[in-house]
User: Which sequence fits this backbone?
């Protein structure tokens, strides 16, 4: 303890007593040194200066609290140099002005750099502490105030720059490097300087320029040329920005061009006579359309304008197509036209409109609109398929078949009345299957598969049933001939197709009287079939069959005739009679008169197929006509096909009848939908029931509100629903 | 059993259900109640049928009932409070006039269940007669309505249509103002309105009004002797 006390006493630290004597002129002297250095720097004479010495001096001045003196000195010295410079620049004439400005700016920048290095300590401590502008920024500000904002320079600079840009726009070459430096200088001086002294006037001048130019162009160019020019201008401006403007200006200047060149002339361009959008669509000008799309893409409402025009044009032409009575004569041609039209627009959208979804939707909606404006579209589309599957696809590769079928499916998707299509499709398919031979099984099945994926199992189950029937019938026939083949001799042979009621579009029709040769055979088949399938009922659909018969004509000609069952019945009668009147034929066969007339017409009135003679000769069949075998019949073919059951456009009454059947079929579907909805909701108001039902049935057909209403009333009557006691618009479900 | 007794019984049966009918959703027990009510009504109808051999006279009894119930239209007063009373009476008219309650079994496609129900409907001619009787002075378009139905309706009038006609007569003006095409009206009413629009321009609305009031007076005059 003691020891340490003693030690403590022996250390005494004395303060440093030397007085620092400051030269009262120190500040002035040092500043003069520095000022001289700055002058030298501006005079590009800096090589003899010692950076270390200058830095130390500046450092000491700041350290000895002469920072302010140093700072104000710097300001006044630099200002005086800049004033000199600006006078020089002002005196420069013509083209030299920019050059001078540029070189002086470079000098100033270089000087500023050095000065900042020398005064680095001041920047860090004094400037920071007293919240002054740092040296570099100070230099820029002084340049701005003493050079750029000088009256003789400010407006002159602006004008010259704008003039040069104008020159470049009119195709002359300008010194882009110089421009880049000048513009860079302006943006270095701060965004506000760039904007006020360059960008704003530049945009205004550009607006004026393009407004005038676009007006000139639009008067003398067609739409395609105009767009080409507009596109070029736009690219030029983008290039200009990348060459010598501030990147931020790109959006602004392109906006100006877009507005002046495109937005202001949008309607005029689109509707330009002989060369507008519609003409481009007509002529499939993909390049022009692409340009149209790309340019209009840039302006507000541009794309919607194009879309509207495309939609209304496609609608209009579509309406013309579907209402053209000429086109309606040939269903296949009609559908082919629709497909071609769709292809055309699809191609345009893919090639020119960037596969834009909104364009595709617009196109689809306009197709949906006009296809459904023709109530026969479902029938015609089915006929088209029929035609293609019958003959068109022969020799066509499998992939191409798929392409055609896919296109058909696309059309199908547009249909509102899918149930009507189904009805016709079933009819036509039945005819294809029953007429046998040239059905392409793969294509048929492929289409049914497509329908199934599109509309579900219910839609196609019956169609598939038809195929199954065909297969089973084949087996049944084989079985029949295996069993009875031996005792049938060489009489006529019978091919029976057993059609399940309900799956096929059979109509309850009176069976005609078959020739005696056939009746026994038919009876044999009947007993064979019922023997293996007890409890079933067979009825002959003689209106749907076909027959191949051998005929020997008076001239010794032998032919094999392919005819319908009805025609066969008629022809067989002539085995035992020379001449038969219409009445006799009708009596003997009991074929319905309309069908009889039709089949006689095709055997007696068609050239090259007139196996019968008719008296008197005329186009139509009369009740009193007399028929006999045409002994002079000749044909270069051995096999003659007469009035085969090719699906044809329906006649007016047939159409009407189909329509009625469709309406009848819809009733239970609508009722089922109402009940389904009401069962789930228990209570629902009238309007919601209607909308829900329409929504639910949409995939099949468009339900008619008044029909829905009738169904609701019928359901009320049958106690499925009742009206609410207090609100008559409200329905309640009665379990 | 006279018409007053039948009406009394009818009111008893229906008032039970009407008490519940007010608020939208109907629990299961109440729908059972409705079924009970239907049974009771059919029972009543059978009773009526067995007591009365002819149906036509009963329609002639209706004015009597109307006057007893004090439901005739008077010029001096148009009661608002009687609307409920009148609705019940109006529905009752359908009840006693309707076609012989044929039971029929029908199959409704979607559910394949067998349902048993009454075929409650009214032959057109009888319906028109009944309308002329009970709605006179209450329905400004009564004459037009009846002649329209006479010409255009081939099927019987269902109970729902019958009831909705009363609602229609209450909310529609002579110039068809107050008719809402979205208003869940029966198709027959829709067709009637369409027919009226077609036949007359809206300028004729005033004429309508006049002819209407004429017919009202007439109708009342006709019914007076029956009292």
Assistant:
């Amino acid at each position: 303890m003691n020891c340490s006390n003693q030690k403590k006493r022996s250390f005494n630290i004395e303060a440093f007593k030397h007085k620092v004597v400051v030269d009262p002129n120190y500040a002035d002297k040092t500043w003069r040194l520095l000022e001289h250095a700055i002058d030298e720097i501006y005079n590009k004479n800096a090589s003899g200066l010692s950076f270390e010495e200058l830095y130390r001096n500046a450092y000491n001045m700041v350290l000895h609290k002469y920072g302010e003196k140093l700072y104000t000195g710097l300001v006044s010295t630099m200002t005086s140099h800049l004033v000199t410079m600006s006078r020089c620049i002002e005196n420069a004439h013509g083209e030299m002005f920019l050059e001078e400005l540029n070189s002086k700016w470079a000098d100033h920048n270089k000087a500023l750099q050095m000065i900042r290095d020398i005064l680095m300590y001041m920047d860090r401590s004094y400037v920071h502490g007293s919240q002054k502008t740092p040296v570099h920024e100070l230099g820029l500000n002084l340049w701005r105030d003493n050079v750029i904002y000088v009256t003789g320079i400010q407006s002159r600079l602006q004008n010259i720059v704008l003039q040069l840009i104008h020159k470049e726009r009119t195709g002359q070459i300008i010194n882009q490097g110089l421009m880049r430096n000048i513009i860079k200088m302006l943006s270095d001086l701060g965004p506000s300087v760039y904007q006020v002294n360059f960008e704003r006037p530049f945009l205004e001048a550009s607006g004026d320029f393009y407004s005038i130019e676009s007006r000139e162009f639009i008067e003398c160019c067609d739409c395609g040329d105009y767009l080409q020019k507009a596109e070029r201008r736009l690219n030029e401006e983008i290039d200009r920005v990348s060459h010598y403007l501030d990147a931020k200006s790109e959006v602004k200047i392109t906006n100006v061009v877009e507005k002046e060149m495109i937005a202001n002339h949008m309607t005029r361009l689109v509707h330009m006579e002989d060369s507008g959008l519609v003409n481009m669509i007509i002529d499939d000008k993909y390049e022009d359309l692409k340009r149209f799309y790309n340019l209009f893409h840039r302006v507000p409402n541009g794309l919607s304008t194009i879309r509207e025009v495309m939609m209304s044009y496609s609608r209009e032409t579509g309406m013309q197509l579907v209402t053209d009575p000429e086109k309606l004569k040939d269903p296949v041609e009609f559908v082919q036209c629709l497909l071609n039209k769709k292809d055309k627009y699809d191609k345009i959208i893919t090639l020119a409109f960037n596969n834009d979804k909104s364009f595709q939707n617009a196109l689809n909606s306009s197709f949906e609109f006009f296809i459904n404006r023709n109530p026969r579209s479902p029938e015609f589309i089915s006929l088209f398929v029929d035609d293609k599957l019958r003959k068109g696809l022969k020799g066509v590769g499998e992939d191409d078949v798929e392409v055609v079928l896919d296109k058909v499916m696309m059309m199908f998707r547009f249909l509102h009345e899918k149930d009507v299509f189904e009805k016709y499709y079933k009819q036509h398919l039945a005819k294809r299957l029953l007429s046998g031979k040239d059905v392409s099984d793969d294509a048929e099945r492929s289409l049914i598969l497509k329908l199934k994926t599109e509309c579900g199992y219910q839609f196609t189950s019956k169609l598939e049933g038809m195929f199954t029937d065909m297969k089973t019938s084949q087996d049944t026939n084989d079985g029949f001939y295996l069993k009875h083949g031996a005792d049938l001799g060489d009489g006529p042979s019978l091919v029976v197709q057993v059609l399940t009621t309900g799956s096929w579009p059979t109509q309850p029709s009176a069976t005609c009287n078959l020739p005696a040769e056939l009746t026994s055979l038919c009876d044999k088949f009947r007993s064979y079939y019922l023997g293996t399938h007890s409890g079933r009922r067979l009825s002959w659909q003689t209106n749907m069959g076909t027959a191949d018969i051998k005929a020997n004509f008076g001239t010794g000609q032998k032919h094999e005739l392919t005819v319908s069952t009805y025609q066969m019945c008629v022809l067989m009668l002539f085995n035992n009679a020379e001449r038969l009147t219409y009445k006799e034929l009708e009596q003997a066969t009991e074929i319905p008169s309309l069908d009889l007339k039709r089949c006689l017409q095709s055997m007696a009135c068609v050239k090259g197929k007139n196996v019968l003679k008719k008296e008197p000769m005329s186009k139509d069949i009369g009740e009193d006509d007399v028929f006999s075998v045409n002994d002079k019949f000749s044909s270069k073919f051995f096999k003659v096909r007469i009035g085969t059951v090719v699906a044809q456009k329906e006649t007016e009454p047939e159409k009407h009848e189909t329509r009625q059947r469709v309406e009848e079929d819809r009733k239970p579907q609508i009722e089922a939908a109402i009940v389904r909805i009401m069962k789930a909701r228990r209570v629902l108001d009238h309007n919601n029931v209607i909308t829900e039902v329409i929504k639910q049935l949409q995939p099949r057909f468009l339900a008619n509100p008044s029909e829905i209403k009738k169904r609701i009333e019928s359901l009320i009557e049958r106690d499925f629903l009742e009206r609410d006691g207090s609100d008559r618009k409200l329905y309640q479900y009665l379990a | 059993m006279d018409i007053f007794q039948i009406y009394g019984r009818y009111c008893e049966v229906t008032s039970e259900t009407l008490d519940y009918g007010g608020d939208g959703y109907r629990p299961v027990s109440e729908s059972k109640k409705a079924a009970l009510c239907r049974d009771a009504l059919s029972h009543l109808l059978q009773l009526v049928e067995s007591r009365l051999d002819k149906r036509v006279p009963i329609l002639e009894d209706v004015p009597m009932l109307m006057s007893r119930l004090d439901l005739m239209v008077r010029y001096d007063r148009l009661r608002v409070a009687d609307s409920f009373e009148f609705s019940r009476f109006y529905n009752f008219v359908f009840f006693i006039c309707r076609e012989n309650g044929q039971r029929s079994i029908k199959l409704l496609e979607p559910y394949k269940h067998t349902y048993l129900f009454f075929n409650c409907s009214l032959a057109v001619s009888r319906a028109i007669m009944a309308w002329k009787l009970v709605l006179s002075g209450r329905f400004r378009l009564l004459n037009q309505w009846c002649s329209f139905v006479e010409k255009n309706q081939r099927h019987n009038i269902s109970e729902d249509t019958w009831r909705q006609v009363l609602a229609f007569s209450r909310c529609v003006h002579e110039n068809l103002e107050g008719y809402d095409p979205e208003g869940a009206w029966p198709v027959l009413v829709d067709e009637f309105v369409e027919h009226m629009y077609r036949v007359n321009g809206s300028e004729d609305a005033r004429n309508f009004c006049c002819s209407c009031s004429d017919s009202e007076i007439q109708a009342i005059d006709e019914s007076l002797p029956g009292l």
Remarks:
- Chain A touches chain B through 30 residues (CB under 8 Å).
- Residues 191-220 of chain A form the longest helix (30 residues).
- Chain A is about 65% helix and 5% strand.
